[in-house]
Amino acid sequence: MNLSYLQIDHERTRDRSMFNLTRFLYLGGSQFKSQYFRKKVEEGKLGEPLMLREPLLQKFKEEAESRLARGDSYVSVKNIVGAIRSLYQFIDTHNLIASEDTLQSNFLQWAAWLDRVSSSKRNRKMSGNTAHGIASRLSGFIGSTFEIPYGERFIFKTRLTKTVHAKRATGRLAEKQNLEESFLFGRFIYALATGINRDTLCDSKPKVIVPFKHLSRTIDLTFEKNFVSSNLSKCKKYRIINCRIDAELLLFVSQTGMMPGEALKLRRTTYKYKPLGDEYEVREYKNRKSGEVFFFIHKEYRKHFQNYVEFITEFMPEGDCVFSTYQFNSVVSVIDNYRGERINLLCKE
After folding, report:
1. Which of 8, 67, 95, 188 lies in the 20 to 30 Å Cα band around 172?
2. pLDDT tens digits for 133-146?
3. Which of these three, 102, 125, 157, is where a domain ends?
4. Against a cut of 0.85, is the pTM above it?
């Protein structure tokens, strides 16, 4: 048997044994480090491959290759492979059947075990946040592999939770100041999102008015003090559009509660809005009864979101994601993560 036929095929993973999923075909193969797997097979210590596992691992391989091809980071895929290994270690230890049909059941049992080992006071092997991070990472990967709607993904069926240790203000004055700064930042982001529009991009010296404490300030969007031009270059125009994209991403995350990493992967499509009280259930429109549920939004946000999608489709047609961005003289559909450098730069202005 070819011991590399489930190797994740990409220029950064092709020669690295840890990206070889073939080892998970063997009972006990996940217990060994990737560099020792081939030797154990040759010595006959792992027996015959369990081909019932092959279809699922093949889909995992294809999804990992797809992510790398569209620009996902090498490190993120490496962490996903680590989570897959942890799952198969649990499956092998507990003599479970690994297949597509048993995937959800195996995941939930594995997540329950992670919850136990992270909450044990005597033999605690990892923190609760670490356990949640591993399971959430694999849940997202499985969700995209099988196109599982976001709200139905496996992680939401477990008891694993993430604890956020926020710094508390020390006193009423500090709490009031923090609240005021939060509202001010929200108004600043909204002003960017609404201020950068078709008229702004047609201006010879584009600028936007943003709130600043009890006053308003005008920010030069070219980031150049002496910039004068009757026609914006493509590069400068895209830099300005990127500022709106960053602001819109922050607005979207605050409205939907979706993680930035998930939001960055949303594709431009025709959306269908279903009223649910004060919210809309937003689905991808398809020529069948229903499509995948993407997210929920407040009714007041719908018009703003639709205007943004129209704006980004008009001014950045090369991208296919809702939050595509312009980097290194080309449009990048999916970026690895959001760092907010442009927003930080505008805040300093």
Report:
1. 188
2. 999 999 999 999 99
3. 157
4. no
